[in-house]
Known about the structure:
14 helices, CATH 2.40.50, 61% helix, 10 strands, globular, alpha+beta
Amino acid sequence: MRLVIVFILITVVLFSARIIFFYTTSPNFQKGEDVNFTYTFFSDPTRIPSGYLLKVKNIRIFLPKTQEFSYGETVAIKGKITEQERVSKRDNLLLKELVINNPEVEKIKNNNFLLSLTSVIRQKVTSIYGKYLGQNESGLLMGIVFGIRQGMDSDLLAAFRTTGVLHVIAASGSNVSLVSGFLLATFLAFMKRRVAILFTLAGIIFYAFLSGLDTSIVRASLMAAFSYGALLFGRQNYSVLALYTTGFIMLFVDPEIIGDIGFQLSFLSTFGILILKPLIDNVLFRNRNFFLRDDFSTTISAQVMTVPIMFSAFSAYSLISIPVNLFVLWTIPLLMILGGIAAVASLLFSVFAAPFLYLCLPLLLYFENISLAFARYSFPVQIDKTPQVLILGYYIFLASIILFLNKHRKNFKF
Length: 414
């Protein structure tokens, strides 16, 4: 315990120094300034009606739709920074922002072998999924297996967002757990444990690149790497410390992501599952096994920990998100397994993937129709602006409940 406290103090000091260095040395872009830089797409670019949108530092860059851009590509961007006004979706305030409209864009050769390889694999798998499944079903399966959101129509995406299941269409902790567990079991059949763990770590890194290095997949991959690293040294019960270390590394590399909603939701939902789920299982469901028990406690844990952030970011929370998550989450492991096998098979002969994709189809249609049906009755709770003091008070109150239940959970019987 003493070593853990020392480690936390050291990371706090290092992070404080990093923050000071970052904000005193970062370039301060100005209106009217000419810029010229290179950019690599580590995830699929955001499509908008006029083309593509990039966010670099505090600048929004609008790329023309006359060119196609995809994961793994590197481009040289040259343009002039201008200023424009837009209305914030969060609180309807008029904001001034720095933008680059229609810059000169030139594709340049990317010498990163891993990025090039994963880009080719993504394109191949996307093509095979689309060959045997409909557009929405193919896009949904790509989202579940690899966290790639593309191909689905706007109405379906809106239904996922309304019902609170959009997080499923993103590679995250559950994906990494399934992939790493499968890899470890496979490697253990052919090699010694330590070597199998090392190969599993390499597989996790490859899957992270294949999925696009979004915030959630980086966090989940780092956590898995720390967990398997702990197995190498015989330390298996350091999940919360692994999450803390993951957050420290990500923030140390890029301090600006602390304001990213995706990072906040990913980090807090994982923390909730690690801390709250065991309490819910032990206090509410002790000696009770029933269908969807694990899905229920996982959903409640993640939702309880992230509700204030969702109110703050989106000014609304859908009351049906918990039941909808319960109805669809059980399909995710099956779709991950079948979709993953189909992806591997498609790299050999595309026809081998067909049976597994056809098995996915009824599950995908079920997922879609449940989301579309419940989206009509979202029952949103809306708060125009969530006070910061209310968010702080919520987490203090939640922490006190967690401490109380941890201390007295043996006395509770339900």
